[in-house]
Write a structure and sequence with these properties.
Blueprint lengths: L1 E5 L4 H12 L4 E5 L4 H10 L8 E3 L7 E2 L3 H10 L5 H10 L4 H18 L4 H20 L3 H5 L2 E2 L18 E2 L13 H4 L3
Parallel strand pairs: 1-2
Antiparallel strand pairs: 1-3, 3-4, 5-6
Length: 191
């Protein structure tokens, strides 16, 4: 099993955990601020240094230290813990960023709550619109974005401090694209 050694305040640890969750890869998290044995194991994997996250893939070999998303995904693919098709499919499921998910959920709940104050003929349409908006926030998947081939993941409404682009929406990888495109560019030459 994969073990992620990190801290609750580390942005890179949270990013790596989020990627593993999005890929549906099981892992065990050890907070090295609270677990001294975990801290010692992490330091042993880092040649005595304290760096987070340190990810032990559980198959021997070197640990990943502060990996970016491409490096972590590539390592999972390289060690056959995941196929390129599985990575593409699993990353394609969610297309609404984390901050936007919260905003959609709150807006949906507000619309449902305010629908009772609307004229009688608008109450049910507003309630349905509010429920759909909240559901896209809770699920993290929007059918309208999916149909247009867009995603807000990696943008400023996903995790602003980790944004990979300035634009709110960007193209998502199409499900009908060749499977090799699911492999991070840094790993394509190694395959």
């Amino acid at each position: 099993m994969i073990t992620v050694y990190g801290t609750s305040w580390c942005e890179d640890t949270r990013r790596s955990q989020r990627l593993l969750r999005r890929l549906h890869v099981p892992y065990h998290y050890v907070n090295i601020d609270e677990d001294l044995d975990g801290l010692e194991r992490a330091k042993a994997l880092n040649h005595g240094g304290r760096r987070t996250p340190t990810i032990d893939l559980g198959i021997g070999g070197p640990a990943l230290v502060e990996p970016d998303n491409d490096t972590l995904t590539g390592a999972l693919l390289e060690r056959e813990m995941l196929t390129p098709d599985e990575a593409e499919e699993r990353l394609g499921i969610q297309n609404v960023g984390d901050v936007e998910r919260v905003a959609r959920t709150m807006a949906g709940v507000a619309i449902v709550a305010l629908a009772g104050q609307a004229p009688r003929t608008l109450r049910w349409p507003l309630r349905i619109a509010g429920l759909v908006t909240a559901a896209t926030g809770i699920a993290g998947w929007c059918p309208a974005l999916h149909a247009r081939g867009l995603t807000s993941l990696g943008g400023p409404l996903d995790r602003p401090d980790e944004a990979e682009r300035c634009e709110w929406l960007g193209p998502r990888q199409r499900a009908d694209a060749p499977a090799e495109q699911a492999v991070p560019p840094s790993r394509r030459s190694a395959m």
